[in-house]
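help with this:

***
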Amino acid sequence: MGGQPMFILSEDAERTRGEDAQSSNIQAGKAVAETVRTTLGPRGMDKMLVSDSGDVVITNDGATILEKMDIEHPAAQMIVEVASTQEEEVGDGTTTASVLAGQLLAQAEDLLDDDVHPTTIVEGYHAASQLALDAIDDLVLDEELDDDLLQSVAASSMTGKGTGDINAGALAETVVAAVRHAETGDGIARNDIALRTQTGAGASATELVEGVITEEEPAHAAMPRSVEAANVAVLDLDLDLQEANIDAEYNVTDVSQLEQALDAEEEELAGYADTLVDAGVDVAFVTGDIADRVASVLGKEDVLAVESVSDDDASAIARATGSTTVGSLQDLESADLGHADSIHVESYGGDDLTFVEGGENAETVTLFVRGGTEHVADELERALNDALDVVIAALTEGGVVPGAGATEIAIADAVRSGATSVEGRKQLAVEAFADAVDVLPRTLAENTGLDPIDALVDLRNRHDSEGVAGLISEGQSGNVGDPVDAGVLDPAAVKREAAESATEAATMIARIDDVISSS
């Protein structure tokens, strides 16, 4: 065996080691972060994403951009995961987290060139991350989170995003109203706030519906399209003839037998309608099919019935109206019925939508999102989802902090101050972390039309003298001011999650010195 080479990898495997592996991974991470950097802030730009099939998405939402991109490099995919995690946990700050992760990698690259060991960089970054989290906690405002403050949080989240012909402030009122409706003594049920998009009107037509909207329409043209003070049944079944569980043949020898069979079917179907009418049902939402003859009878009795309702919509309607979902008509009782102040069917172009409003469970609401085009409606839906999430995060996960880059300036200052107590080369990594954080307000300044270096100097000076300094966007440019006075606020949870997830991704990538891939 002496002198014989040993092969432990297949011939098709590729291996990159040492500095080459580190450089490849860092460059990939930086490239992905750079892609979304220009979308940061109230004057950030949008991206157009075109799929192989020609589908187009126009957005400046970091998570959406990275999700739609066809990214293959494994290190780059880790930056995508940063944005995805940020979106899942707190609903906003995806661009901030991605840019910070990319800048931490850029700083790590310089440290590696200076022969700082990756483990030292990792330890320094983790120490700096803890300093950053402490700084965020110190910045949390002591003020009560009333509706005005929450509207500022929602508006800050949506400013610069595609909101069509309505400004973020007006939408923020609707967002806060939706959250307040879903708020109970046990917390906020995010599932009780739905969004439904519909093109055909400007974004200013977006409204809050205190109830549920379903896309299904009445099962028969003779049914009423509007019912007030409705008793509501939610049925998880088919209102149609029951099929036999076994294969069977019936021999019909004369017309009377055929008539008897048809009469039996008619009686069975009429029985379904009679059961609903006798139970006092005004509106029935059915997950299965409704036979034409059943629908016809219900229409004559002025009962509105909607078929093929999705399980999610059925569940939402049951919660909104206080109904109990019934799986068999034999089990239907008056106690199973819910109540709605109004149920009405509206036409939008060629689409019918059924509105269920004013149920017993007032916390269930729907944001009815309008847009002149599908692209506008979709982007507005993304903006509203983010706004809902940040308002909920502010209420449930630790309050709010100054926005407009003020928190990042404070973090960088705190990390630099804390670096003096760190010994050895790890101090270099702590200082590099602060430099990476500085890129966020610099990018805000650049996207706002200011000179990034001059703006950063002004921000630091004002922070040192007054304790808080942010970039306030005004018209085509901006200035350094107090973001709290300007109503620019962010949930503390967004900043914490961004610092933690970006640090974890950057340190994981920086530690990799060997990439083995198989064909």
Notes: The two ends are 29 Å apart (CA to CA). The first strand starts at residue 14 and ends at 17. The longest helix spans residues 255-278.
